[in-house]
């Protein structure tokens, strides 16, 4: 074995980055690399000895078929490649980094040049696109992937702005919810007041949450919601939903933040689990608890509603008596034949008597 393994050549990538170039040897068992080296012309033998990593971004890459493929690549007259992709202005600062450090790092690692428009140019359609230039398609695709990973990380740190849901603010469910609310308030339990309840005009089942920061992202989310129609094949619609029983989001019933009603809807559960995936792949939506399945529930009481009105109020409430008296409460049944993509407000709606603002719908 060559002693070069102990002292391999070095490759400097700029910005104080220096990488070791591993040497391939026949006794390492990399038969594919060995065959490639043996087929190399004598004059090229020296360069063939260097380790060549498999190109994960080659021409066979199917990135352009990915969910949320909001980009295009063109070959410039000078032989370079240019990729343009939509990035919401809210991410410009994170993409550039402190004094441009993040942008320079991605450029150095992928051998590309990245252009991020100034925020004040956002009113111009052309200026909304981030562009990447490089000597090869694989370079610009590598940069795109790094940018997408960065955007996904930044998006997960933000509060959801939208959610997909099944509306329940009409019919039997609403009537029984109102009765439940009256019965609980009539008990005059310590720490329980009307502000802690969900508004009857806004009760719903949440399927997915999203962070949508501009018109382009909202339009993409509506498009994804519409594409979920294909998941209805083989399912019995309209979905039959039964809501019965109460549960809490934590383990201590004496210190509860969220009290919710349980949902029985096997067909809706199948659809929700499938519909969640395209939102996750797009990078616009995410599953907070990484369950791999949607937790169907109807929020009944949430301490956050009260905290928004009074920041000094208690962080939790005691739900023991409520669970004891109403643990098996029957909220009724309903048929579901539509889903909505809605704006997530800090309060329980814009005004009393109104549902959340609807951005898009899927009716079936």
From TrEMBL:
<dbReference type="InterPro" id="IPR004087">
    <property type="entry name" value="KH_dom"/>
</dbReference>
<protein>
    <submittedName>
        <fullName>Activating signal cointegrator 1 complex subunit 1</fullName>
    </submittedName>
</protein>
<dbReference type="Pfam" id="PF00013">
    <property type="entry name" value="KH_1"/>
</dbReference>
<dbReference type="InterPro" id="IPR004088">
    <property type="entry name" value="KH_dom_type_1"/>
</dbReference>
<dbReference type="GO" id="GO:0005634">
    <property type="term" value="C:nucleus"/>
</dbReference>
<dbReference type="InterPro" id="IPR009210">
    <property type="entry name" value="ASCC1"/>
</dbReference>
<dbReference type="InterPro" id="IPR009097">
    <property type="entry name" value="Cyclic_Pdiesterase"/>
</dbReference>
<dbReference type="InterPro" id="IPR047538">
    <property type="entry name" value="KH-I_ASCC1"/>
</dbReference>
<dbReference type="GO" id="GO:0006355">
    <property type="term" value="P:regulation of DNA-templated transcription"/>
</dbReference>
<dbReference type="GO" id="GO:0006307">
    <property type="term" value="P:DNA alkylation repair"/>
</dbReference>
<dbReference type="Pfam" id="PF10469">
    <property type="entry name" value="AKAP7_NLS"/>
</dbReference>
<dbReference type="GO" id="GO:0003723">
    <property type="term" value="F:RNA binding"/>
</dbReference>
<keyword id="KW-0694">RNA-binding</keyword>
<dbReference type="InterPro" id="IPR036612">
    <property type="entry name" value="KH_dom_type_1_sf"/>
</dbReference>
<feature type="domain" description="K Homology">
    <location>
        <begin position="79"/>
        <end position="152"/>
    </location>
</feature>
<dbReference type="InterPro" id="IPR019510">
    <property type="entry name" value="AKAP7-like_phosphoesterase"/>
</dbReference>
């Amino acid at each position: 074995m060559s002693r070069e393994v102990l002292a391999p050549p070095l490759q400097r990538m700029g910005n104080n980055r220096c990488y070791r170039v591993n040497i391939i040897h026949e006794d390492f068992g990399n038969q594919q690399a060995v065959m490639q080296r043996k087929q190399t012309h004598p004059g090229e033998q020296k360069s063939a000895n260097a380790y060549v990593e498999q190109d994960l971004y080659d021409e066979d890459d199917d990135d352009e078929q990915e969910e949320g493929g909001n980009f295009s690549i063109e070959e410039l007259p000078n032989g370079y490649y240019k990729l343009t992709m939509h990035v919401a202005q809210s991410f410009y600062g994170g993409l550039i980094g402190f004094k441009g450090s993040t942008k320079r790092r991605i450029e150095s690692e992928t051998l590309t040049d990245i252009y991020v428009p100034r925020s004040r140019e956002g009113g111009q359609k052309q200026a909304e696109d981030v562009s990447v230039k490089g000597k090869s398609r694989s370079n610009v695709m590598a940069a795109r992937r790094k940018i997408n990973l960065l955007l996904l990380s930044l998006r997960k740190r933000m509060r959801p702005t939208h959610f997909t849901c099944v509306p329940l603010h009409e019919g039997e469910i609403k009537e029984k919810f109102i009765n439940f609310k009256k019965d609980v308030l009539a008990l005059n339990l310590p720490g329980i007041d009307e502000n802690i309840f969900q508004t009857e005009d806004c009760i719903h089942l949440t399927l997915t949450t999203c962070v949508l920061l501009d018109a382009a992202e909202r339009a993409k989310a509506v498009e994804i919601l519409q594409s979920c129609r294909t998941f209805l094949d083989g399912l019995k619609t309209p979905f039959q939903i039964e809501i019965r029983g109460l549960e809490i989001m934590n383990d201590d019933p004496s210190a509860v933040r969220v009290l919710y009603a349980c949902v029985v809807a096997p067909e809706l559960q199948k659809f929700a689990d499938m519909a969640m995936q395209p939102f996750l792949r797009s990078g616009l939506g995410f599953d907070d608890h990484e369950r791999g399945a949607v937790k169907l529930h109807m929020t009944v009481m949430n301490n956050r509603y009260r905290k928004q009105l009074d920041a000094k109020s208690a962080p939790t409430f005691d739900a023991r008596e409520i669970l004891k008296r109403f643990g098996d409460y029957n909220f009724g049944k309903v048929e579901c034949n539509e889903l909505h993509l809605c704006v997530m407000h800090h309060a329980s709606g814009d005004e009393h008597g109104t549902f959340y603002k609807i951005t898009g719908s899927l009716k079936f």
